[in-house]
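Researcher: We plan to redesign the surface later, but first we want a full-length starting point. Tokens attached.
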């Protein structure tokens, strides 16, 4: 029964392309739409069917997944003139896997519900590697029985699937995730800077510390990229700043000071001021190089 669900997939970026491929490999029939048409070609070669708009995707699907960019992008593909809701019949399940504002998610879920469409927020963690390998953590907000209906889809894309609460709870947990990602990132670049200045081998430092109490995803996955001078995303500074903006706006509403998160946000602003918005988040090393007057990235040496 499960992989008889007809799946619609909107947004074939770094994450979406790999996630759609994993759904196809698990045997689901997948209809896709992407704003830039050329990106549909590759998933077509893997067996997906292209559609002309998000509206057309919804007409052909039992479940529609969106993974695009920021809050206004999700609103555009869901509520726009040719958006998902324009093509949705009652009973459609809409799963947004982008990282966006919890407040906006709750509003979208209400709008969808008025049309008989059940929505889940299901943002992910695990990066481009997790998307490729089908090992994403998926944090789900919405009704639990709706999650159970689409669980086989989530199992094709991820490993750690947790129902976090009602609509918006998935995005709130993702905001917690981004707080920790930001601070682990800062810890990683500070440790690499210290190692470089003190003259120890960077690769050995990473090798031994990833296995101990200091280990983090940032250290294990981004540390080696820094040492190689590879600042490609992965996850771009622009997107990390989007996520930290969501966190800091929510924290303001909660009257909660978040000193570390605000510091990471300001340091990444410096990366952006120097033209690094589309680099991976580990380009934070460039600010450390300037602050400490040293070079790790080979191009700078
Ligand atoms: P990406 O490579 O930049 O891809 C973004 C996708 O969204 C593209 O397909 C883009 O279409 C589409 N898009 C953006 N704005 C749109 C709009 N207004 N209307 C229609 N389509 C639009 O981004 P990504 O890295 O896959 O990230 C996607 C989402 O996943 C984001 O919310 C991000 O925060 C989240 N996320 C990313 C990672 C990661 O490591 N990359 C990890 C966890 C979560 P075009 O092809 O036309 O540009």
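Model: Full-length starting sequence:
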């Amino acid at each position: 029964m499960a992989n008889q669900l007809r799946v619609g997939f909107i947004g074939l970026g770094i994450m979406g392309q790999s996630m759609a491929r994993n759904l196809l490999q698990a045997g689901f029939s997948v209809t896709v739409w992407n704003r830039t048409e050329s990106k549909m070609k590759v998933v077509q070669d893997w067996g997906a069917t292209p559609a002309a708009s998000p509206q057309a995707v919804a007409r052909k699907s039992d479940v529609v997944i969106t993974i695009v960019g920021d809050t206004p992008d999700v609103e555009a593909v869901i509520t726009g003139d040719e958006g998902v809701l324009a093509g949705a019949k009652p009973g459609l399940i809409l799963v947004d896997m982008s990282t966006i504002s919890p407040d906006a998610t709750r509003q979208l879920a209400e709008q969808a519900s008025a049309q008989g469409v059940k929505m889940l927020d299901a943002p992910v963690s695990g990066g481009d590697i997790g998307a490729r390998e089908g090992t994403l953590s998926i944090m789900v907000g919405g009704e639990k029985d709706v999650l159970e209906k689409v669980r086989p889809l989530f199992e094709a894309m991820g490993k750690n699937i947790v129902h976090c609460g009602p609509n918006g709870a998935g995005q709130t947990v993702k905001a917690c995730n981004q707080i920790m990602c930001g601070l682990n990132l800062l810890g990683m670049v500070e440790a690499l800077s210290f190692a470089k200045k003190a003259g120890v081998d960077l690769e050995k430092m990473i090798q031994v510390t990833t296995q101990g109490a200091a280990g983090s995803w940032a250290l294990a996955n981004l540390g080696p990229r820094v040492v190689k001078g590879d600042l490609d995303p992965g996850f771009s500074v622009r997107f990390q700043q989007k996520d930290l903006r969501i966190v800091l706006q929510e924290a303001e509403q909660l009257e909660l000071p978040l000193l570390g998160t605000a510091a990471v946000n300001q340091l990444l602003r410096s990366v952006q001021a120097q033209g690094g918005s589309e680099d991976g988040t580990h380009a934070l090393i460039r600010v450390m190089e300037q602050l400490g007057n040293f070079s790790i990235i080979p191009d700078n040496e």
